[in-house]
Amino acid sequence: MKLNYYPDTDSLYIRLSERMSIDSRQVITGGVILDYDESGNLVGIDVENASSKLDLSEVQTSNFPIGSSSAAERHPQDVVPG
Fold first, then answer.
1. How far apart are CA 54 and CA 14, in angstroms?
2. Chain centroid to CA 76: how far?
3. 78 in helix, strand or coil?
4. Whole-prediction pTM value?
C-alpha cells in the first residue's frame, strides 16, 4: 500500500494494489473516489480536498503484519513507523 499526497490538487491517493484501475466510482458523500480493477477489486482511493477532511500532519500504522518479505524491506523509504 502506498500513500501519495498531491499538494497542487490537495488530494490524497491511497494505492492498495499495483493493478491497473479501469473503473472509478464516487462515494455518495462526495470527494472520495474508489478505483477498481478489471475484476472489480478495489485498487485505490482518491480523497479530494484531503487537508480539509483529514489530519495530514501524522500517519500511524497499527498491527501491520510485517514479515521477512515486508514492504519495509522492499521500500524502506515509503514506510511510516507506527
1. 13
2. 17
3. helix
4. 0.71
Residue 32 near residue 26 (C-beta atoms within 8 A): yes
Backbone angles phi, psi at 24, to 5 degrees: -130, 140
Nearest to 81 by CA among 65, 66, 59: 59
Distance CA 82, CA 80 (A): 6
Tell me whether residue 27 is in a domain.
yes
Residue 81 lies in a domain: no
Amino acid, single-letter form, for residue 43: V
In a domain, 5, yes or no: yes
Q: How many domains does the chain have?
A: 1
33-82 pLDDT, tens per residue? Answer: 999 999 999 999 999 999 998 888 888 888 877 654 444 455 555 555 44
Query: What residues make up the domain containing 25?
Result: 1-54
∠ CA(38), CA(54), CA(9), 5° rounding?
Answer: 65
